[in-house]
Design a protein that fits this description.
heterodimer; A: 453 residues; alpha+beta; five-stranded mixed β-sheet; B: 220 residues; alpha/beta; 11 helices; disordered N terminus
Amino acid sequence: MKTDSGPEPQVKVPPPPRRLYRDPGNRIVAGVAAGIAAHLGLRTAYVRVGFIVLLAANGLGALLYAAFWAVLPTQAPAVPRRRVPFLQRAALFALAIGVIILRVQLGGFGDDLSLIALLALVAFGAGVIWHQADPGRRRRAAEPSAVPSPAPAPVATPAVPVSAPEAVPAAAAAAASVAEARTAEVESLGDRRWFPVRMIGGGLLVVVGIIGILGFLAPMGPNGFGATLTGLLFGLLALAGLVLALAPLFYRVFGQLREERVARIREQERAEVAAVVHDQVLHTLALIQRNAGDTTSVVRLARGQERTLRNWLYKPATSPTERFSAALEQAAAEVEDTYGISVETVVVGDAATDDRVAALVAATREALVNAARHAKVGTVSLYAEAEDEKLSVFVRDRGAGFDLSGVDDDRHGVRGSIIARMRRHGGQAEVRSTPGEGTEVALTLPHSGRDSS
Amino acid sequence: MTEPSESTRALRVYLVDDHAMFRAGVRAELGAYVDVVGEASTVAQAVAEIAAKQPDVVLLDVHMPDGGGRAVLEALRRTQPEVKFLALSVSDAAEDVIGLIRAGARGYVTKTISPEQLADAVRRVADGDAVFSPRLAGFVLDAFAARPDVPVTDPELDLLTNREREVLRLLARGYAYKEIAKELYISIKTVETHVSNVLRKLQVSNRYELSRWAADRRLV
């Protein structure tokens, strides 16, 4: 075998409990050979050749492979999938053909071959079912589909964060990137959809295999195949009776399990509510009592708490660094906290953020700050709308207002932070103000593609 | 009575809210403008007393034990067509807001509204107009936004006209009716007509997303 082109990086599983895994990240068929090689510290190619040579022993290689595949758990690959060099694949394939031809030349496979094939079938069927229950499957589904990297990545690729399977839907709401979590959810959904197919298919394979083995062994008995079938039938009847007898018991056990699960979820939820109430609401109430004399702080505290509670109750958690609406709400919250005013925020539609959108949010923030500082009113309205081709933001107060022509050029706030910033990013800013009636700042930014999600 | 409106007598207002403190507050604030004829803290009490007292306007809390404002609306909508309902709530949840409007409320305001504005809203609702808070206007714009995946079965009901959209936008921006009228060069009466039309569409349109939309929004 002159096939190992370059040093093959060996995937060393970190020591504590050294277990045997399949390594689908480095596979030709299912990664069994790669896993064994990694475990034994051998070259993968040697193990592969070993399996192929064992094919000669009445197909033992195939049986072993199927059996290993059925029982070995997979490990979340520490290395993104590598393609096994084509040369090595071709060589192994040729070797397998060679072994089979040689074996046939030497007198063909014996009767044992069909037995081994049937055993392999049973192992395969069992594997299909067992892998269903393997959390590794779900976990792999939660990762972004392996990126085919052109060069074999070194072993040092950061380990993939392992989340409990139940956490997948919850994680969608959490800080993690929404899109990624969504694909994970979709994939695990797809997994669930395949569940019955796999169960039934795997079960059929196992049953067919076992019947085959029985049929294969039976002719050696005195009464031949017919007797075996009768026996099988009785066996099935007995099994059916047993199932019937035990069904209520199983049903009850399942019911209990489900109830426990529901209770546990409820308990978790309650704990979360308690945490919010305790950490935030009670804390704020205590602060309000201590600051009872200071109206501004009381208003600020109450408003801040209201906002937090509202967001927690009604709003999906989105990241201000990703969504236009979340970014605006964060800016409004900061201004509320800093200046002790309330910002009535209404956002229609939503969009993903980029540099230009971030500039729009920054300009909005500046407009809110101006209103908070100069308008001398308690409430400012913020309205934003994401349309197909543009984003618009309106900041309005009913406060003091000012005379636009009276603003000096050196006043950085309006000219620099709002008008010039919007212009720099291809947008527009318009300030309308009437002394005594209030001010409205209108910001628009051309934008491609409303994103209604 | 600082402001005797068109009507010769003070408006008769009924309060439904399960927070006694809030009822007392509203009673004190509104007392100068309207005649608060009664209050209830439960759905059953509200249904019985409103039928008996026939107030002009009912201020209705969204969230109450045993069904909330929606249960009151559903119990009285048919039998008391003369009574107008104005939802008053701290809830920001779209399904609460839209749900109450679709059950027959003539408007929705938040509990942080100032007494003058609340009195104004009550008067408007009593006159048969609609009252939209900026947030509700935003919700409606969102709900009626043109989306390729939603079939429009009845354009008359399922779409907003450009003018209605403009009016809603200004409402969402915090404009008062008077200011909207000035901005769009139309009369206040026209603004009121537009808003009432939007309310009607919101109540009777079968646009798929009006029922589904709020739930979808939460899933984002």
